[in-house]
Every structure is written in C-alpha cells, then in structure tokens.
Amino acid sequence: MSENDYPAVLPEQGDRSRGVIALLESNCTVCMLCARECPDWCIEIEGHKVTTPATTLQGRDRSHNILDRFAIDFSLCMYCGICIEVCPFDALFWSPEFEYAAPTIGGLTHEKEQLGGWMQSVPIEARGDNDPADSASDQR
Asked: CATH number for the domain including 122?
C-alpha cells in the first residue's frame, strides 16, 4: 500500500501504535488521578457523590462518585500515556483510532461520549477483563 491509497485504504498500524485515548466509563470512579498526573493538564473531570442507603439493619450508608463529565483536550495532549498508566481502575486505554481531526482547535476537546465510543476499537488483548459488552450486560 502506498500513501496515495489513503483514505480509501486505511494504513496498517503497529501493535504499539498510539492513536487516541478511550474511556471505559463504567470503570471510572472519579478519583482524579489521571487529571492530577497529566503533565499537560488536558483532562477535565466533573462528578458528584451519591449516597446509597444501608442494605442491612446494622449497615451504614455508602457514598460513591458519579461521573458527570470527562473530557480530554487533544490540542494540549502530548500522548505520553501517563493517564493510562496511573489509572488504578483500568478506565483509560489506547485506541488505534487516528482520524479525529477537527476544523477548529476547540473541536479537539472530546467528551466522555466520544471517548467511550472509541472503546470499540481498543484491541481485546489490551482490554483484559474490561470488555465494554460485558460491562453493559452487568448494568442491566
């Protein structure tokens, strides 16, 4: 394949290619580690706490975080992968997607819906036990 065949024929990518960062929203606990460790400060996270009542008589109420907003500004991102490495809940993955250009610099900020959509292109080997199809069926 030559460069002249693109975009009709997509180029093959190596196993270690870095395209874009994908988000598995069900694994994100809004711990903010990725945003704090990012050297470019390109990750924006917003969330809120929800309290779940105790299920037993002597139990206590539990609180957990709900993800409201997760956005990555790819105009700032340097694709170092620190966010992926520091995530203790395996919520971020490298996706081989590379066609996400935008006509304006503001269009390079992608929200959780777009980041979650890229999970479909993450290789199964990279996901490990975190298959989005499995997590979707677990939530039903």
From this structure: 3.30.70.3270
Cα pseudo-dihedral 116, 117, 122, 128, rounded to 10:
40
One digit per residue, the tens of pLDDT, for the chain of length 140 reads 566 787 788 777 777 777 899 999 999 999 999 999 999 999 999 999 999 999 898 999 999 999 999 999 999 999 999 999 999 999 999 998 888 889 999 999 999 999 999 999 888 887 876 655 554 444 43
**Pairing mode, strands 62-73 and 43-52:** antiparallel
Best CA proximity match to 92, nearest among 112, 66, 64, 65: 112
Count the domains in the chain. Answer: 1
Structural domain span for residue 34: 14-52+63-129
